[in-house]
Design goal:
single chain, 34% strand, 10-stranded mixed beta sheet, 14% helix, 5-stranded antiparallel beta sheet, globular, alpha+beta, 5 helices
């Protein structure tokens, strides 16, 4: 009996712990009470709500709390999603790369990356691989604390993209800068683990940027990311080119993120690239009300949380 007990103990030590699957509930009222920081106590299983029909998604565990809401209007014809993302201290946005051995040289579908890594929240980013493949300035690109590309514009231009950057730090801090202000090498020296380059900047230091320009006034599908305070982010996805959604200008995107409380925010690659996923499934609507499926392959995704 003693030998059997020792054998069982050895197997427990050798085998990695299996994480319990998150528990799905129909309403947030069914989720256990959270602690003062708004997260579940240690030892509590993760909980989530997924209601695509009514446009509501929610997830909470010991380090991450995410709430996504869909808003639709008829005039203007608009469908957009705001993701309120709160991370515990020391937790930040990160990237999941399709090809870690040759980042930016091959692309994969966002849902495939999110599912393979069991990501709670995912959003499309800067699609820098397109610029690499077409021999354009890639921008200041940092992934996993390493410089991938360090070539960008030296001045501010009115274009999409203008290669403005947003940097994320392990502490939860994030900052935005114009293309020529901080290089990828300088970001890494400051401790940034992820730097995306696209732009333009929508909000900086609590002030909305002037994006009321011809280059930015087309209504298109949009993907944007902002920060309220360290560890508290807001993702924005605007649908477009659909029966229920005309898209949005960058001025509208800036206003939505400002109203959500963001102090800094940046425009990411939109159009067919724009994607937002909850536990591996797109939140977007098809024209008949089903779950839209992203069909554009990209090099990586911005991610938060695992399950």
């Amino acid at each position: 009996m003693k030998r059997l007990a020792l054998l069982l103990l050895s197997l427990m030590l050798l085998c990695p712990a299996v994480l319990a699957e998150p528990i799905q509930v129909s309403d947030v009222s069914e989720i256990p009470e959270t602690n003062e920081e708004g997260f579940l106590p240690e030892g509590t299983d993760a909980y989530y709500v997924k209601d695509h029909a009514n446009g509501y998604w929610y997830y909470v565990d010991q380090t991450v709390r995410i709430e996504i809401t869909r808003t639709q209007t008829k005039s203007p014809l608009s469908t957009y999603y705001l993701a309120d993302i709160v991370c515990a201290s020391g937790t930040s946005l990160y990237t999941v790369t399709w090809n870690t051995e040759r980042p930016g040289r091959t692309n994969g579908l966002p849902q495939d990356m999110a599912n393979a890594s069991r990501v709670v929240y995912a959003q499309s980013g800067d699609f820098y691989s397109y610029r690499v493949a077409n021999d354009r300035y890639p921008g200041n690109i940092v992934r996993d604390g390493k410089v991938l590309y360090n070539k960008s514009y030296s001045k501010v231009i009115d274009a999409i993209p203008n290669l403005a950057t947003m940097a994320f730090y392990p502490s939860g801090k994030a900052e935005v800068n114009e293309a020529g202000e901080v290089s990828a090498k300088e970001y890494v020296a400051k401790g940034a683990t992820t730097v995306v380059a696209f732009g333009p900047i929508l909000i900086r230091d609590g002030e909305t940027a002037d994006v009321d320009k011809d280059e930015y006034n087309h209504k298109e599908p949009r993907s944007c990311i902002g920060i309220i305070e360290p560890g508290h982010y807001v993702g924005l996805l605007v649908e477009g080119r659909k029966n229920h959604a005309d898209g949005a200008t960058l001025t509208t995107c800036a206003e939505l993120l400002y109203e959500a409380g963001c102090t800094d925010a940046i425009n990411l690659d939109g159009g067919n690239t724009a994607a937002m996923l909850f536990m591996g499934e797109s939140v977007q609507l098809t024209n008949n009300g089903g779950v839209d499926v992203n069909d554009r392959a990209i090099p990586d995704i911005l991610a938060v949380g695992t399950y």
